[in-house]
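Anyone able to model this chain together with S-adenosylmethionine?
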Amino acid sequence: MIESGLHHGDNLAVLASLADGAVDLIYVDPPFATGAARRGAAGSYDDAGDVDAYLAWLRPRLVAMHRVLAAHGSLFVHLDWRVSHHVRVELDRLFGARRFVNEIAWCYSVGGKSPRTFGRKHDTILWYARGDEHRFFPDAVKIPRKAGSHMKLVVGEDGRAVQVKRDRRTGKEYRYPVDAGKIPEDWWIDIETLNRGDRERTGWPTQKPEALLRRIILAASAPGDLVADFFCGSGTTPAVAQALGRRWLAVDASAEAIAITRARLAAASRHPAPAAASHPEAARPRPAAASSRSARLPSR
Ligand SMILES: C[S@@+](CC[C@H](N)C(=O)[O-])C[C@H]1O[C@@H](n2cnc3c(N)ncnc32)[C@H](O)[C@@H]1O
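re: yes, here you go
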C-alpha cells in the first residue's frame, strides 16, 4: 500500500492503492481540456479538448480522491474557464453542494490577450471539504489590510493604526488593527504567474507559482499532514509541502515531469528555503517523523 513519496504512472492506479481517508489535503491541477498539447522547454503533455471525453476521464479520478480524503480533508481543483463550470457540477454531485467551500479566482496579467474579448486572466480553483469540519488556518495566510479603504483610520491608545467602521443600522462599531492583517478574499491578485526569467521556473509547461501552493497548503493543512497532488507536473506541490513540514504524495504520468520533480526536491533538500517568517504557523517546530519522511525520495 502506498503512503507517500513520488510516483510515476497513471494517478488512477496510485489512487486505487491508497487507503480510505489517508490524505489530509489534495491539490490538483489537471489538464484543462485546452485542445492542444502543452509544450515547454523541458517537456510536454497532451490536453485533448472534447469536454465529454474529458469529464468521463476525470470523473473516476475525482471519485477516488473523494474516497481517500480524511473526514477533515479538503480538495482543491485548479481549472480555468473552459471546464471549471462542468467540474463544479461534478463535484457538487460527488461531495454534496453543501461541501463547497470557495471558488477562488487566481488573477494574473502575464501572457497573450485577444483583441475580441476582455483578457482571460484568471484561473478558477474549486475548494470542497470532505466533511462538516474542514481544516482552515486563516492566521497562517493573512495579508496586509489595504490602506485607503472606506473605513476611518484612527490611532488606538496603544499607538496602533486601526480601521474603524460603524454599522448604521445597529450602531455597533467594528475595529480592525491594520497590522493584524486580514483573511484574503476569494479573488487573489497578489500572486503573479511565473515569468520566463523566474528562478523557480523548471521549463515544465503550466508550472504554477510556489506562492500559490504556499497559501493553499498553509490555509488548509497542519504541519505533519499528508498533502497529495495527483497531477504534480514539475513538483510545485511536493516542493512547497516539503518546505512547510508536511508529508507529501506526488504522482505524474510523464517521466519527464517525474525527473524534474525529483531534481527539484533533491535541490530543495540540499538548500532548504528559510521558513516564511510572515506565517506564524510556518515558524512552529515540525514534527520530526513527518519532516524526515517527506524529505525521502522514493525510487519510483
Ligand atoms: C497542468 S500540469 C500540472 C502542473 C503542476 N501543477 C506544476 O506546477 O508544475 C498537468 C499534469 O498532469 C499530468 N497528467 C495528465 N494525465 C495524468 C494521469 N492520468 N496521471 C497522472 N498525471 C497525469 C501531466 O503529465 C501534467 O504534468
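Helices lie at 11-16, 51-68, 84-95, 210-220, 236-243, 255-270, 288-295.
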